[in-house]
Hints:
The protein is mainly beta. The chain is built from five helices and 36 strands. The longest helix is centred in the N-terminal third of the chain and has 10 residues, at 10-19. It is globular, with a radius of gyration of 22 Å.
Amino acid sequence: MLKKNSYISLKDGFRSVQKKSHYVASSLFPVIISKKNDLNIVFFNYWEIKNKINLENLRIFTKIYDSSGKLLCHDGNKILKFHNQLSIKNILIKNSIDTQNIEGVVNVEIVSLEKLNFPFPAITGIYNSGNIYSSVHSAGRLKNNSEPQEIMYTEETNWTCKFQKSISPFFHYFVGNKKPFKKYITVKLLSNNNEIKKSKKIFIDKIDIFGSKIFLITDIFKKTKFQNTDFVSVEVEHNSIFPRMIVGNYYSKKNFYEVTHSFPKITKQDYCPVDKKYSFSSKMLAYTNKDLDLKLKIFPTSCKGYFTGDVYVKKFSETSLKRTEEFIDFSIKNLKKENIIRLNKSEEVKSIKLKGNMIPSRLNTSFIYKVRGAKSDYSLDIASGAHSLIFPKKYTHWGHGYVGEGFNSIVMIANDNYEKLNHTEFKGTLDIYSFNFHEKLSVKIKPGSLLTIDISKHKKLKKLKKNKLSFISWCLKLKKPGCECFWVSYRKKDGSIFGDHSF
């Protein structure tokens, strides 16, 4: 008997992770390789630093397939103690594979002789076309043999679609080690009120095992008058795969893929718990710097709910968050349409503290950054959302950045909690790593504020700036848990921008 939906509550999801153990963590990334294009797999060795797994017991393997599912090469490498990066193009060249024009998929596997808690590895895929970059962390993957291989379905959605001349939204579809039971996927074009404008079945029975394809929305819905507020959903099957997809927008003139990952449409009710110890059950925290514009897009794809939001703001000229007169009413009617929340130019941090008995535990949101004043259409779409009381409190955060080719790289550390008044000052260390480079900084984040560290301005990183691929890793260790982090790399002269939330 087929299950129609794949869903587990957020609370049960966190519990299940604690119970399971794996020896393989993997993720699938689309491969686009040409003279100008490459994909770099960048990661920090948190398995040893955070989880205390012996370095000698860890290996990384990359299995690269072309779009037909043919295995091009299977490469293995040791994992370095701190910062790691692998060029897929260089791996192909090392294995004597022509890199003029390759599309397909890479299965990145972290294999351990000691138990891993998560079947997902905290790794990032950084795409480039020439000197333009975009990034996305682990999304879809092959299921391990120890996991249920059930047939289920989700609608993958929740990314900003750009319908402009020479720009088209895309999604990357892949097949695992077993072909889908259903011979087609269903793609829907939706209005910002979640109304179906068009729907089309795409037959995928000719895509073989380990095969994949990048679909352009403008090719699927030809001769369609698109609105910039339209978005897309794709119904896909779970069997041997976890089908979170790499999605985004394709710039045809640059052959550039601006990437993020999908979130599923939530069809079952799942709400944040109410705890009388706290004033709020969930919060949406947004923050930026003076070079970047930021807006939050809440898609109409969460379960129905009813709740309110008290708005706190910290301006650049102020020292901490302050309650404003602004009040947000998320009624059932309002959640059926797209909601946009903006930070104006004077606002550094905006905290929306959510109250009520029907707050969706997953309030999936795109955090959309753009270089202020840039004439280009490039933007950064970080797939994130509201954080409820269910989320585990973290002492350790880590992420990446880029310090070459004129990029600024910032790490933003926000100090906000669930109380009306936050009196907690967070202290810790920020370690910055690259090849043969390590620098430790002491950090202090004042209550209700944001600490922004511009890594690219650090004097000891000048040597790295001369290298073309100057990716870095950073690791924040706090004495008390409670902060949130984003990292953003951007170039002011042309608006190129990429980044992500921390792991």
